[in-house]
Amino acid sequence: MKKTYSVTSTSKPSTAPHHKVRIFDTIQVQSALAAAGVVNSPYSGEAPFMPSVSENEHARLEALLRLSIDAGGGHRPAFIASGALIKCLEALISKCPGFHGVISVWLGAAHLSCRSRTPFSVPPVLLVGSPGIGKTRFLSELANVLNVAMAPGQAPATARVACNTCSDAGMLVGHPISWRSAKTGEFTRALIASPVAQTLIVLDEVDKLTPATISDNPFNVLLSLLEPENSRRLRDEYLEIEFDLSHALIVATANSTAPLPEPLLDRFLVVEISSPSAETRKAIARDVFGDIAGEHFEMPTDDILAQIAKFHPRKQRQIVRLALGHAARAGRDHVVADDLNAAASLGVQPAAKIGFF
User: Fold this and answer.
1) 3 falls in which pLDDT band (50, 70, 90)?
2) Which fold has domain 278-354?
3) Under 8 Å CB-to-CB from 86, ≥6 apart: which residues?
4) In 3D, which of 295, 341, 303 has the Cα closest to residue 322?
5) 204: burial class by Cβ within 10 Å (0-12, 13-18, 19+)?
6) pLDDT tens readout for residues 313-333
7) Beta bridge partners of 235
8) Which of 41, 87, 225, 282 is the S-S candidate for 309 at Cβ 3.0 to 4.6 Å?
9) Which CATH class is domain 121-272?
């Protein structure tokens, strides 16, 4: 008899016990503490004795002690998709129509997980498109989908990396303790905080990574992260412990693929994001206005929305906020053309003037 599955249920994704993943080894943690001279296990009932060490090393040992009493014993459940996640992803297509391609990838993965009762998994995705078309905003919406679809307290933690400010690998996987102000890497920190194994890793503007030195190249870390065999044993250089990041949900953005090494591109599913059509920009304008104005202002007429839609998505938020401020100052609960003109006079330029459309 053919098995069937339902996507109409609004139940939250499950975290079945038999899908637990060991994200780090507590024995490795205990060994690291012993090697550093920490006496008494937290399980002994006695307060651990901390050796006299530098401030940096003391902070590291405290982090290791917290890991040694991790509530999950170093394990996290891997969640299985449900109808709730599928419905949220389908709704996201209407909200972000220009990103239909990447949402379809996630939808396919959600249906597969739901049907097979296996952990939700998606390939690493790289979104490539011109600046200002809404890539960063889409990533926020995608993270919000996981928060809404999951049961309270079960949504994956998110590691957000602004790659234009990332110049060394230590920001991603921890700096050696010898570094001043050394700390745990962004990837590790999110995984430890996540209630599930599938932490969300967002790499914004990955094409702007600028290695400080040849030997300390963040691209090398990303290659390891994107290679399943290596990501299962990705070492945090600060904690000196290996972590399993092979279940991470990875989404990156770039304005261009030209600066990216070919081996890195080969490990991504590259999705081209085209500049939105006039109708799509108008739909985005309606959504942006609703997000900012809420119930305090009337939804603009089609003519006003068409005027807002002349601006590319990034600028639409600026123009709407300025126009709403002008309308509120005038004591109105609706936006008129004069409000948009006032906003434009402050220096906000339509997309058409900067070569987007």
Assistant:
1) very low
2) Helicase, Ruva Protein; domain 3 (1.10.8)
3) 7, 107, 110, 111, 114
4) 341
5) buried
6) 778 888 899 999 998 999 999
7) 242
8) 282
9) alpha beta
